[in-house]
Design goal:
- The chain is built from 11 helices and 8 strands.
- The protein has about 260 residues and is α/β, with parallel strands linked by helices.
- It has 2 domains: about 5-125 and about 195-260, Rossmann fold (3-Layer(aba) Sandwich); about 125-190, no CATH class.
- Strands 1-2-4-3-5-6-7-8 form an 8-stranded mixed beta sheet, with helices on both faces.
- Helix 1 links the parallel strand 3 (about 25-30) and strand 4.
Amino acid sequence: MSNLEQDSVRSSNGTQIAFTRTGHGPSLVIVHGSLVSGESWLPVAMKLANRFTCHLMDRRGYGRSGDSLEYSINREYEDIEAVISAAGTQVSLLGHSYGAICALGAATRTQVTHLVLYEPPLPVSHPIGSALKDYKRAIESGNLDGALALGLTQFAGVAPEQIQGLRRSPLWTKMAALAPSWSREVEAVDGLGPSLNRYRNLLVPTLLLAGTLSPRYPLQDASKALAATLKNVQYSRLEGQGHNANFLAPTLVAERVVSFLSTR
């Protein structure tokens, strides 16, 4: 196993952002999604480590990173820019789920050589947070388990049988503990609105990863809409996978990433 180096950088907004570095070769910054930390992409990073120096950042409020009382998605962009700057020159960027939305926004503001996006849940047809009031009510009452189940159903379109499977896994307890953080992220997503025009002028080579088993809305619909919007994009289907192939099929994900990033 490659060595894991813990490091951090101060974002332009003053927040200390932690990341784990592993591997050797050209730099790749990896931005995780909701309800997890940077370690959620460690299985993929281990597969990439002989080709790339992976920087697995902990987004604000997760893992070893700091946070601030006021939240905006623009601060997430700034945090990513800080890690990109720390990673050196000729840096590629990968984002998953909400982290893919953050990575996409950061790529409109700072230069990266390649961009990989795994199912950003953009609200292309309607807001994803219709159940947000009920979710917040469950959080405020201390019912993190119920809130998580509600959020997975209503925000992410996860099927009941998949939720039952998650309940039986060690991941459930970790996700439930992080459930309060999801509220502000859902609000930020819906705040972007349905238009994708802000991304039309993005020219960086982009790979869109989409699981064939992922929910149609907001995941598959958003990926297809983004594929139709971006000017320099490849669309790659992860056959037999859903939204968590980084856990369940890290070799498959790593192979797609290596193939794409090798086209420099």
